[in-house]
Amino acid sequence: MGAKELARTLAWRAGWVYLNRGFYWEAHEVLEPVWMVLPDGSAERQFTQALIQLANAALKHRMGRENAVRRLCGIVEKHLAACGTSERVMGLEVRAVRDRLAILRGGGGLGVLVE
Question: Which Gene3D superfamilies does this entry report, sorted A to Z (predicted)?
Answer without folding.
Answer: TTHA0068-like
